[in-house]
Amino acid sequence: MMRSRPALLAAVLTAGPALALAGCGGSDGSDGADGPEGAGGDGGSTVAVPPPSAPTSAAPALPDGVTTTAAGTELGLGEQATVAWQVGADRQAVVDLTVVGVQPAPLELFDGWLLNGVADEVAPYFVTYAVENVGDDDLAAAAMPLFLGYGAEGALVAASGFAATFEPCPSTPLPIPFEPGAATEGCLVYLAPSDQPVTAVAFQATGDVAPVTWGAVAPR
């Protein structure tokens, strides 16, 4: 059942940076070459998922006949929202988005990946979703402003990316191409602080409105 609760998570974004994970053996990172433009590492690796832009105060324009889900709406896992955000300077994203599941992921799955010395401080989560492009623009390689909320203050962390293919949960942007009417399913990796409870998944495109959230996150 849908309910509006604007204070579920902080309306002003407190997002942690996305952590790019590099394989430490067995891969040269070439699998990330089809991703969006990202930060190149010393070994020429490419970050698969850049952190989404920080929310702005400008509300995106909508195609005729499209109504987005009200800010502050709280959904259950498996429920659909219509959401919109600006992609760069010239693309407007409007999608039907469903957060399907949120599950803790064992650290053992990250054996062979470098966690930048923070393995003892993070708790990984897999967020699965389904999305359909209901707008007018091709959303190729767009990163959704979809965050994982944690802690009593409602802080948000962005999805992490990989310098090569991570089979359990690829954590990549939208496909290339992703034209109007296209639909896909995906999985994103989030690294929350291990000493904080995870509370919800949050879509937040602008910093002056409450996010749309999906609750019922599985406990660790």
TrEMBL record:
Annotated PROSITE patterns: PROKAR_LIPOPROTEIN
Signal as UniProt keyword: yes
Source organism superkingdom: Bacteria
Species of provenance: Nocardioides zeae
Keywords: Signal
Upper classification of the organism: Bacteria, Bacillati, Actinomycetota, Actinomycetes, Propionibacteriales
Segments for region (Disordered): 27-62
Name by which UniProt lists this protein: DUF4352 domain-containing protein
Signal peptide positions (record): 1-22
Composition bias type Gly residues, residue spans: 35-44
